[in-house]
Amino acid sequence: MRKLYSGLAWTVSGAVVVQAAAIAFAFGGMLNLIAEGGVVDKALLEGFQAAGVGEMGFLIHGVVGGVLIPLVAVALLVVSFFVRVRGAKLWAAITLGLVVLQVTLGFSIVGSPYLGLIHGANALAIVAAGAVAALRMRRARRADAAAERPEEATSDAVAA
Q: Which of 48, 50, 52, 130 could be disulfide-bonded to 12 (CB atoms 3.0-4.6 Å)?
């Protein structure tokens, strides 16, 4: 279960990196379209007619952020109840809470573009929380390995 927990936590962090790459690709494509004399308007955004200029990045950003990451974060929280590591539930809950905030901010940006500043910063917080959750499993594995070899630990302490 620890490996599953760790894998889910790394998946959340990695998916946020995909999010950042996808939105950069999308906006780069839009800037390219404008530089070539094109116009970005409501019809273009709703019609997905601008093939080759990065609009696929918006789709990837929406699907990964609106579906994949929330599902993986919920799975991480569920798995955390079966992992016997101190703090596993806490970091899974923090990760899920940040993901919920991120999705809420993402859907609210249209009404208030300044929320995009928090949306971007919160993405970094999700990466950090996912990484902390995953790295706690590594620390727990090391602690378990040290506990299995108590004679080595005591002989080192006596020798010192």
A: 130
pLDDT for 93-111, tens place per residue? 999 999 999 999 999 998 8
Is residue 158 a contact partner of residue 44, using CB atoms and an 8 Å limit? no
CA 6 to chain centre: 13
- Residue 69's nearest CA partner among 141, 111, 2, 20 is 20
Give the burial class of 9: count Cβ atoms within 10 A of its Cβ; 0-12 exposed, 13-18 middle, 19 or more buried. buried
Using alpha carbons, list the distances in angstroms from residue 145 to 137, 138, 141, 150.
Answer: 12, 11, 6, 9
Rounded to whole angstroms, the Cα distance separating 160 from 145 reads 21
